[in-house]
Fold:
Amino acid sequence: MRPGPESDLIDHLPRLRRYARALTGDAARADDLVQDTVERALVKQALWRPGSDLRAWLFTVMHNLFVNQMRAARPPDAALDEAPDMPVNGGQMDALAARDLHAALLRLPETQREVLLLVGLEQFAYAEAAHVLGVPVGTVMSRLARAREQLRRDLAGEAAIPLKVVK
Amino acid sequence: MTERVREDELHAYVDGQLDEARRLAVEAWLAASPADAARVRDWAQQNRALHAAFDPVLNEPLPVALARLPQRDGARKPWKMAVAAAFAVAASGLLGYAAGLRSAAEAVPVRFVQDAAVAHAVFSPEVRHPVEVDASQSAHLVGWLSKRLGAPLHAPDFGALGFELLGGRLLPGETGPVAQFMYQDAAQRRVTLYVRRDATGNRETAFRRIHENGLEVFYWIDRGFGYALSGALDAARMRALADAAYRQLARGEAADG
Structure:
């Protein structure tokens, strides 16, 4: 077997799948995204420089595909990067929903979700995450801070709401 | 006195991306700043929650087409189509499996071979639980599967061909229980032997071969059993394994005896 991107690629598949699952919140969509990523990577493998970080490159390919999907699914004037933070809700139903990490993740704007997952789950260094996403490190840090604070409000909201005793 | 730390450094502390000196500075700061310490604790908890929620994906079997990628480096014609087709086959195979009797009218061996291929695709990429009973208990394994199939089974010995028995499992088949034995070579390539009682009373013993999306399946029927050997190896190697299995099973010799 010839060593090359393909044989190395398989080592990265489990992590690509983990990231895609967390990013999309849906197993079938996630595997579609992984499949698209692999196909794209194989078509473009000439662009990958041996010796450079294959993992980061694969995540970059996946990021670009994900952004294109999001763009296609969104009205043209709502730029992805300017996606507003979701309003913070305090109602009881929302607090119950927030119990679910998955739901809380999906309420994050995609740009913040990507940073949070690349750093918190995939353990990329900040500079690597910036490279994958094609943004400055400062942007990674500000998105990370916003994502973590929103998640904190979302997940803590439940605990912070005092139980009402119904008489 | 503690030195003020930057917000970014609190994050870098959580993510283990600080050098030693700054890490100590942040720890000193946190010791004196309960509010920041609480935020940092929550962020670290978020990272742990992400791992707890999504790390199990790492141990899921890969979709069959992705699992086979490294073995396809030679003839890489229409990659996209090959990958897409294999996905579709895996998905439709599983659907067919779940739908049960949908294709009961088909010729028996086709369905049997398809089930064998699907069982191979589902279980051979398993990292943690490829088999129900591992080869260290081979006597128990073979005894158990024989009992469930209602006839004495044997697991062929592929040691001379570089494949060791990993173990086996019991599966539901079209006409009753099916046994799957799994073997692995030094390069961690896996082949599975799928065995069922042959209900049709067919005495046919010729090898037949199906090649589908990189997966070779050799199947034959011999003395009341139907066998299908599946693996993503070249045909010559698969043929050698099938020959060995056929010869041993015909003589009643095997890894378990």
